[in-house]
UniProtKB/TrEMBL annotation:
<feature type="transmembrane region" description="Helical">
    <location>
        <begin position="78"/>
        <end position="98"/>
    </location>
</feature>
<dbReference type="Pfam" id="PF05656">
    <property type="entry name" value="DUF805"/>
</dbReference>
<feature type="transmembrane region" description="Helical">
    <location>
        <begin position="46"/>
        <end position="66"/>
    </location>
</feature>
<protein>
    <submittedName>
        <fullName>DUF805 domain-containing protein</fullName>
    </submittedName>
</protein>
<keyword id="KW-0812">Transmembrane</keyword>
<dbReference type="GO" id="GO:0005886">
    <property type="term" value="C:plasma membrane"/>
</dbReference>
<keyword id="KW-0472">Membrane</keyword>
<feature type="transmembrane region" description="Helical">
    <location>
        <begin position="21"/>
        <end position="40"/>
    </location>
</feature>
<dbReference type="InterPro" id="IPR008523">
    <property type="entry name" value="DUF805"/>
</dbReference>
<keyword id="KW-1133">Transmembrane helix</keyword>
Length: 117
């Protein structure tokens, strides 16, 4: 949960790097939040909570994805690869699974080294 909150604190920060755990925990809690909103909407019969949840979390989800791309040594513009039919999402998924680039890159220091005890 702390990784989700950390990503929310960097709501619209597209600079820097995000570790795999920050990205994937954000994705997990995003999914759980949307599922809860869908269930609430199914009970009340109006899809208002789902719409509000998804609109409220769209910018943080893009920013954490861009920072994750930075962590792998890629520009945030690679985010738009998802627009390529059928293969774009798969390519972006592979980028999200790749380990951090070693050492400092153009986007900042390695967050693994910076947060290591």
């Amino acid at each position: 949960m702390s990784w989700f909150l950390a990503a929310l604190k960097k709501y619209a920060t597209f600079a820097g790097r995000a570790r795999r755990c920050e990205y994937w925990y954000f994705a997990l809690f995003y999914l759980l939040t949307v599922i809860v909103a869908v269930v609430i909407d199914a009970v009340i019969g109006i899809p208002i909570f789902t719409v509000v949840t998804m609109l409220g979390l769209i910018i943080p989800s893009i920013s954490v994805t861009v920072r994750r791309l930075h962590d792998t040594g890629r520009s945030g513009w690679w985010y738009w690869i998802v627009l390529v039919p059928m293969v774009g999402g798969i390519i972006l998924l592979i980028f999200m699974l790749i380990d951090s680039a070693e050492g400092e890159n153009d986007f900042g220091p390695n967050p693994k080294v910076a947060t290591a005890p």
